[in-house]
Design brief:
Belongs to the PPR family. PCMP-E subfamily. The chain has about 1100 residues and is mainly alpha-helical. The chain is built from 62 helices and 2 strands. The protein has a two-stranded antiparallel sheet with strand order 1-2. Strand 1 and strand 2 form a beta hairpin.
């Protein structure tokens, strides 16, 4: 033996058939080798294998484990014999295992005789080639790598055929480095080798290297094969290398390969996908032969470019050219119809589908269903769906998505339920569509059920499904559930983050949205362009200007400022934050502006009161021929309202009317509001009654206008309309209605409205409660006003002022002082309105001590210099007879107006006589202040109270003759009251008949009181009828007339009158009197049980009165029931 060695074979499943017996001897020898029974020389083993090579197939039918050659000097020859035996196997197609371990470099140990015999007898290079082909076919990468190493170890030259086989094998397993190594080792690279290496780079998407190899091949004057051209074009198509594609096209024209169908198809596809459809069409036009594949490539190119018209035109040409369409053809044509509602043309295509028998194809049928559904032809979609012999999930999904696109979301959910009942399990797309439908109709319960089904069905929740699920929960307002889905998703992408931010923003959770944005940045996830407007919207609504600027900086860095939606959001954010300069800067630098851009800027200017700029931008918008929408017009209307620009408002209204925008509810309501605020009630009413749908805003605006115009009956018409149209009044509507109801002086209408307010849970609204208190006070129903005040859970300073003003207007100064003291004890600081009401109460009570206290509070609060408070202080001191103090305050006033002078003059007229009053009146003129009607009202009222008829008459003439002031009803009432108080009833009658204006209730009450004093029953009855006609619920008129009848012993008339008074609920107020003792005001009410203190005080005052000669008049006591 020349050497010792071990050869290990694992031969499994050896057959026992007769045709295998010839190999049994050899198998026993091999087993002996395995057990080291004998150790033949390598030459003996070679001869043995060669003798049995024809039947060696049985040996390779098993699994050949790795061989280990330790001392075989001719190991390579052994393997060669094995290779030859395997390659000449008579059993084609059978997969056999080859040696899996390199033998190492043993070539030096091979004898020349044996090597020569092997090379010449077995042609091992051919054996290697056959084996490599077998490795490639069987994808045996490890054996191929082994053989390559074997070649290298034995310095075997790699020919072109071997190199191409090795490159193909390595490339198919992604071993590009080894493929490149083989390419560099090929002795003389032929076209086949270049083809293999280029195909390898194409397979592994190494486009740049592939193109470099292509041009290197050209440099070596090798003509690229058809396969090389196709691979290179495929790479150019994939990576959009249009320039290189054109070069290859040019070379193909030179070599004549451009007329080849495969090359032409590839060129058309390359040009189309690189965006050059014209060049693709040019290639198509020069092709001498066009089969259905060529047509399909061009059709697909135009379909991808959404050139539906050309696709349909090509299909028509194809049909006229008698080219039978295929499946791809119809799919391209169907894609062309997507979004086009050409039902007639589509039916022709459908007939062709039926003609060529493609209606049974599930892909085409599903495309048909999807197309019909998306175009809104749901009945046709149903027909195709029902005609399907084998419906699948795709068919159902197409039908469901079509209904969703048509807005029939409920039906889409029903189809999903039916789909499940018929045994089809929804896939991810099914659930996505269902979630979209639930979100559109806010079907929260159905959405939760579907979410549970999704989990139970085991469908993988991918990004798309999770995104639609988030959208659904967001639209249903279930942000907690959306957050749970979001947090449980392993790796949310930027779309899911954007949906969550949008959901928080849309629901007003701006802080949560910004916090999520910060988390997104921490995770280094960049928002997409659609997310930034929501982020900016949060900044705008929170007024976070600095955060908005940070976001703006990020947009600048990412070069997203050119996006119109982003710019609009920036303008809106800067506008709402009051940075109009920055907003205008963004607007000015926009290359493209839409109507939203203009709206955002105009609305921002309007919001911050810059109405001139808003209208200027609106005019510029019109000059640039940008069509304004209802939002633009709305902002412009508000600016016209703010400026009081009635002419511009009318011009704008005309434009709105011409463009048919007046019917928009919000715009119509603001037009009504504009005309109301500009005191054009008729125009406001015309717009209001033309509105197709009145809402609470327009009704409230109209009610406000009618209240301003004192058109109380029209308010009732508006309220009737609101009841008829089921329009729920808001606090503004009720406030206007209450003001209208209070004008009659009857609290019954106010009570009805009060009941409605309680039913609508608006009774706790502070503004509305203040209105209720005010209207009850105007109707002299202070008990109900005080009830509203007491039940209010939270009272503002305005509420306290309203109730105090009500009591002051109803001459209940005692209650005003009590409330003023209670307000201070509850920790509220009075304002000037509080002081005005309290000072008026002090005037009615004559409580000088309280005036001094309030004066001190006024000084402490630095309000003495305030013109309104100062004038009231002057008037209060003057009425109480403290003229020196009134004059001191008057002198300290920074601005002495006509009210200040009138108060001082009235005080002097009442307490110091006409001479001083006249003196100050002329001094007032010298100061350049012209007296007004109220000035003489104060003077005439003072003379009336003092009974100075002559002085009052002189001033009345002075007012008319010297100051040319036309007397009002208040002046005439002062004169009549002056005559009546002086006992000059006849003079009062004469003066009455000489009045150029109609008397009011005050006039008739003064005359009625005087008639009772003088027992003039007839004239008294006349005055009573006139007074009750103007104000039917005047209880004072009934009481005075009753006393007049009682004085004349006309008791039948008294009882009749009292019955009528009770029938209409004209209850009289109980008589009250107040007295101030030691700075404390004490009130006495008729019929009230006196306290011990007040009883003692009352006895004291009765004793004082009797000592001064007072005798009670009991003749006027009415014989009627005592009213409680």
């Amino acid at each position: 033996m020349t050497g010792m060695g071990i050869v290990i074979f694992d031969v499994r499943a050896l057959g026992q058939s007769s045709r295998m017996r010839s190999a049994s001897v050899m198998m026993r020898w091999i087993q002996g080798l395995h057990h080291r029974i004998w150790h033949p020389s390598s030459s003996s083993l070679i001869r043995l294998f060669h003798s049995y090579c024809a039947k060696i197939e049985h040996l390779f039918g098993g699994n050949l484990r790795p061989l280990r050659y330790r001392h075989f000097p001719d190991a390579f020859q052994v393997v060669s014999i094995l290779v030859a035996a395997h390659a000449t196997s008579e059993v084609p197609g059978r997969k056999r295992s080859i040696v899996k371990e390199a033998l190492g470099d043993n070539k030096d140990m091979v004898t020349d005789q044996e090597d020569s015999w092997l090379l010449h007898q077995h042609h091992y290079l051919e054996d290697l080639e056959r084996l490599l082909r077998k490795c490639t076919a069987d994808e045996n990468f490890s054996m191929g790598r082994y053989l390559h190493s074997l070649m290298l170890a034995n310095n075997i030259e790699i020919s072109g055929s071997l190199g191409s086989l090795l490159i193909q094998l390595f490339a198919s397993h992604g071993a590009l480095l080894e493929a490149n190594l083989v390419f560099s080792q090929v002795s003389a690279a032929c076209v086949a080798v270049w083809e293999a290496i280029i195909e390898a780079h194409c397979l592994l998407s190494q486009t740049d290297i592939l193109i470099s190899l292509y041009f290197k091949m050209k440099e070596e004057d090798l003509l690229p094969s058809k396969r090389i051209v196709l691979c290179t074009l495929q790479a150019c198509t994939r990576d959009h290398k249009l320039v290189y594609g054109r070069i290859i096209d040019d070379q193909a024209i030179r070599t004549g390969r451009n007329s080849d169908v495969a090359v032409g198809s590839c060129l058309i596809n390359m040009y189309a996908k690189c965006g050059s459809i014209a060049e693709a069409q040019k290639v198509f036009d020069i092709l001498p032969f066009r089969n259905v594949v060529i047509w399909n490539v061009l059709l697909a190119s135009y379909a991808r470019a959404d050139d539906s018209v050309t696709v349909l035109s090509l299909f028509d040409k194809m049909e006229r050219g008698n080219i039978s369409p295929g499946k791809i053809t119809f799919l391209c044509v169907l894609k062309a119809f997507n979004g086009m509602k050409l039902l007639g043309s589509f039916n022709l295509v459908y007939n062709n589908i039926l003609k060529f028998g493609f209606d049974v194809d599930s892909v085409i049928s599903n495309s048909l269903i999807d197309l019909y559904a998306k175009c809104g032809h749901l009945q046709e979609a149903y027909k195709v769906f029902e005609s399907l012999k084998c419906q699948d999930v795709v068919s159902w999904n197409a039908l469901i998505s079509g209904h969703i696109k048509a807005g029939q979301n409920a039906i889409a959910l029903q189809l999903l339920s039916r789909m499940q009942k018929e045994g089809f399990n929804p896939d991810a797309y099914s659930f996505s569509c269902a979630f979209q439908a639930c979100g559109s109709i806010a079907a929260e319960e159905e959405g939760n059920i579907l979410h549970n089904n999704l989990v139970l069905c085991g469908v993988d929740i991918d990004v798309h499904v999770a995104s639609t699920l988030l959208c659904m929960y967001g639209k249903c307002g279930k942000l907690v559930d959306a957050c749970h889905v979001f947090e449980s998703f392993p790796h949310p992408n930027h779309v899911m983050w954007g949906i969550m931010i949008a959901g928080y923003t849309q629901k007003g959770c701006y802080i949560c949205g910004l916090e999520l944005f910060e988390r997104m940045q921490e995770k280094l996830i960049e928002p997409d362009v659609d997310t930034f407007p929501y982020i900016l919207n949060s900044c705008a609504n929170l007024g976070i200007f600095i955060q908005g600027m940070v976001v703006h900086n990020q947009l600048s860095i990412r070069h997203l400022e050119a996006n119109v939606s982003v710019c609009n959001a920036l303008i809106d954010m800067y506008s709402k934050c009051g940075c109009l300069g920055e907003a205008q800067h963004v607007f000015a630098h926009m290359s493209v502006r839409d109507v939203v851009s203009w709206n955002s800027l105009i609305a921002g200017c309007t919001l911050h009161g810059d109405h001139i700029s808003a209208l200027s931008i609106f005019v510029r918008m019109m000059e640039e021929n940008i069509n304004a929408d209802d939002i633009t017009s709305l902002a412009a209307v508000k600016s016209c309202t703010g400026l009081g620009a009635i002419l511009q408002g009318m011009e704008l209204h005309h434009s709105i009317f011409v463009h048919g925008l007046e019917a928009k509810v919000a715009l119509g309501s603001n037009l009504v509001d504009m005309y109301v605020k500009l005191q054009c009630i008729e125009e406001a009413a015309a717009v209001f009654w033309r509105l197709p749908f009145a809402d609470v805003v327009s009704c409230s605006a109209m009610l406000s206008g009618y209240v301003q115009d004192d058109s109380w009956s029209q308010c009732a018409d508006i309220y009737d309309l609101m009841v008829q149209k089921n329009i729920q009044p808001d606090s503004i509507s009720f406030s206007c209605l209450l003001k209208a109801a209070s004008q009659s002086g009857n609290a019954s209408d106010c009570r009805i409205l009060h009941d409605e307010i309680i039913k609508t849970d608006l009774h706790t609204d502070v503004m509305l409660a203040n209105t209720l208190i005010n209207v009850y006070a105007k109707c002299s129903s202070m008990h109900e006003a005080h009830y509203v005040f007491n039940v209010l859970p939270e009272r503002s300073l305005s509420t306290w002022n309203t109730i105090m003003t009500g009591y002051a207007e109803n001459d209940n100064g005692f209650q005003v002082l009590k409330l003023f003291d209670l307000m201070h004890r509850e920790g509220l600081n009075a304002n000037k309105v509080s002081y005005l009401s309290t000072l008026k109460a002090c005037c009615s009570l004559g409580s000088v001590d309280h005036v001094f206290y309030i004066h001190d509070q006024v000084i402490r609060n630095l309000l003495e210099s305030d013109s309104v408070v100062g004038n009231m202080m002057v008037d209060t001191y003057a009425r109480c007879g403290h003229l020196d103090e009134a004059h001191r305050i008057f002198d300290r006033l920074l601005c002495k107006d006509v009210v200040s002078w009138s108060a001082l003059i009235a005080g002097y007229a009442q307490h110091k006589g006409a001479q001083l009053a006249r003196q100050y009146l002329f001094e007032m003129q010298q100061k350049g202040i012209k007296p007004v009607g109220k000035t003489f009202t104060s003077i005439l009222g003072a003379y009336s109270n003092a009974g100075c008829v002559e002085e009052g008459n002189d001033f009345f003439k002075l007012m008319r003759q010297e100051f040319h002031i036309i007397p009002s009803i208040e002046h005439y009432n002062c004169m009549i009251d002056s005559f009546c108080r002086a006992g000059l009833l006849d003079e009062a009658k004469k003066f009455l008949y000489s009045m150029p204006i109609l008397p009011n209730v005050t006039t008739w009450m003064s005359l009625l009181t005087s008639s009772r004093t003088f027992g003039d029953i007839e004239f008294g009855r006349f005055c009573f009828n006139q007074a009750t006609e103007l104000y039917p619920y005047n209880s004072s008129a009934y009481m005075i007339m009753s006393k007049l009848y009682a004085d004349a012993n006309m008791w039948t008339e008294v009882h009749k009158l009292e019955g009528e008074r009770k029938r209409i609920f004209a209850w009289k107020k109980p008589g009250k009197a107040c007295v101030e003792v030691d700075g404390q005001v004490h009130e006495f009410t008729a019929g009230e049980t006196a306290s011990q203190y007040s009883s003692n005080t009352l006895r004291l005052w009765i004793r004082i009165l009797k000592n001064r000669g007072y005798v009670p008049d009991s003749n006027s006591v009415l014989d009627t029931e005592v009213e409680v």
